[in-house]
Amino acid sequence: MLEIALGSALMYYFATQAFDIKEKPPEAVYYTETLDSRNPSFTRMHREQVLIKPALEDQFRGIVRQAYDYSCGSAALTTLLNGYVGTQLSEQQTMNGLLNYGEYDRIIERRSFSLLDMKRFVSALGMESGGYKGELADLVKQGQPAIVPISYAGFKHFVVFKAYKNGRVYVADPALGNISFDEERFKQIWENNTLFLVNVAPQNRKGMLALQDSDMRHVDDSTVNRYAFVDIQYPQAYMDRIADKASTIRLERDLNKNSESYGQDTFKFLRLYYKSK
């Protein structure tokens, strides 16, 4: 009886104390891979950790998403203030400020905010700002983020201009995330060539809206149209090699009388085939 109690105590100790179980990061995914003798390297671990994050997280990096269909103005202004000025406002706080310092009756009537409402709120925060008109070259020359109104998909909308590079205009859209337009398309949808700037001393500017490599991953319309309904074809021999590498193997006797290895023990690849709908 004593041995049983002692054994149970030891098992409990080893189960709770002896193993250093590290806490799993929330973005970690573990996958198991069977060791394959055909692989030239045997050093690969059976279980590997892969860190992932939702694509949506990067899509809206540095952007305050609009909470309502009519609140693109408050979300765009919050994005600009947080990402460029360095404030830590929520969209609701910005919305309350726009209602308090803007033209309240007109805001309620049109169910949207104007650049004048933004200027009044920014002034209440102790900063200089203003709305201007200009060409794309003027917008680019400023070298800073700016709120620009666009008319897109049948709606008037506010986005934050981030940068121009290689014929594309990159914007932070409170509804769609980090997106871009080719230069000509942007000129077509840019409403009245209007822009809204907040004056910030160079040493106080924040870089949350700076252009990053992930922003420049885009597929032009012609490429989408070209490959949208085309099945990419590979040589059958290449596909066989890929299938063999991804499969398991089993040693069994060849019972095919027409085979050169009839009656001999051969390796058979056990593949999984998936039928596309």
From TrEMBL:
Q: Which residues form the Peptidase C39 domain?
A: 66-197
Looking up InterPro entries in the UniProt record yields:
Peptidase_C39 (IPR005074)
Question: What is the annotated signal peptide range for this record?
Answer: none
Q: Can you say what this protein is called? A: C39 family peptidase
**UniProt source species:** Acinetobacter chinensis
